[in-house]
């Protein structure tokens, strides 16, 4: 028996109709939202996924795949989807139909589950796409960001621009055949998690250090709200990692705010700060350093401009930075 609130796989419906039917079926739930990929789309601490609205890539004939980009601490796609992978709970899945369909129309894919989550660089992801006539290529890397492009059978690019692809989600739904070559339950590895964690945690870490110091600890170089601050950066003192590749200590006490060039010298241990006196010292590690370090002689032996703001807990950590 079909009820007026059913969402049948294969139907093409406007969002208003989808939301209306959902509200009738689940009157105690909040309304759906199609603004983000996951609905609800905002609360990072709530892992509930009532629906997935895949608005991108409707022109790509890979309806069981979600190419995830721009995940962050607020969206928290990784942990939320990973939770559904492990629990095998289902959620509603909708995709944009081909471009000739009316605006704001969605194709009902039905109750779906996460089958696997793949690193774009993994053999499984590459093999899955190749079996379907596609190729996924890493075009360039900029610091922590990897830019990928997906090519179809005619070697035409599928993404409008090279995309900062973080991971791929493989879904199962009533309209989709079981994908071959994918091991159910596969999770993204340490590499992907470490990159995502670093991006999210570093923003919080940087904000806390900016609030504490407001300027370069060594030189006192000021920051202003009128500009970005590429010349002053947050850096960690102790870089030890745990088994998952995450920093053991991401606290504010384990960080300094340094001018960009000094930050790189500090990270490479060409510069150290005396934990007792707060004096700055430089050293040569490679033969090329002898040509660079003379430009910093005016800072050699000088007390950090903001040493009075450096707490004892941070000074203790500087003892390990040798």
Automatic annotation (TrEMBL):
The lineage of its organism: Bacteria, Pseudomonadati, Pseudomonadota, Gammaproteobacteria, Enterobacterales. It comes from the Bacteria. Residues 216-271 form the HNH nuclease domain. It comes from Erwinia amylovora NBRC 12687 = CFBP 1232. Pfam families: HNH_2. This is HNH nuclease domain-containing protein. InterPro entries: HNH_nuc.
């Amino acid at each position: 028996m079909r009820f007026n609130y059913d969402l049948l796989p294969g139907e093409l419906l406007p969002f208003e109709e989808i939301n209306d039917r959902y509200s009738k079926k689940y009157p105690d739930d909040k309304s759906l939202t199609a603004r983000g990929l996951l609905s609800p789309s905002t609360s990072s601490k709530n892992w509930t996924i009532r629906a997935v609205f895949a608005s991108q890539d409707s022109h790509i004939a890979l309806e069981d795949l979600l190419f995830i980009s721009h995940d962050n601490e607020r969206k928290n796609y990784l942990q939320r989807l990973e939770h559904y992978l492990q629990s095998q709970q289902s959620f509603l899945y909708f995709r944009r139909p081909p471009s000739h369909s009316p605006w704001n129309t969605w194709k009902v894919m039905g109750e779906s589950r996460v089958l696997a989550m793949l690193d774009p660089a993994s053999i499984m992801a590459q093999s899955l796409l190749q079996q379907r006539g596609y190729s996924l290529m890493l075009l360039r890397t900029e610091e922590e960001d990897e830019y990928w492009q997906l090519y179809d059978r005619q070697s035409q690019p599928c993404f409008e621009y090279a995309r900062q692809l973080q991971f791929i989600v493989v879904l199962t739904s009533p309209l989709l055949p079981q994908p071959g070559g994918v091991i159910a339950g596969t999770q993204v590895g340490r590499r992907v998690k470490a990159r995502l964690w670093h991006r999210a945690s570093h923003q919080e870490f940087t904000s806390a250090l900016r609030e504490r110091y407001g300027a370069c600890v060594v030189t006192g170089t000021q920051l202003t709200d009128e500009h970005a601050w590429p010349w002053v950066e947050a850096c960690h003192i102790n870089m030890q990692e745990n088994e998952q590749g995450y920093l053991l200590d991401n606290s504010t006490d384990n960080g300094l705010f340094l001018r960009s060039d000094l930050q790189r010298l500090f990270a490479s241990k060409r510069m150290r700060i005396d934990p007792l006196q707060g004096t700055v010292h430089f050293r040569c590690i490679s033969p090329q350093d002898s040509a660079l370090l003379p430009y910093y002689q005016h800072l050699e032996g000088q007390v950090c401009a903001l040493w009075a703001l450096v707490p004892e807990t941070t000074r203790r950590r500087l003892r390990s930075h040798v």
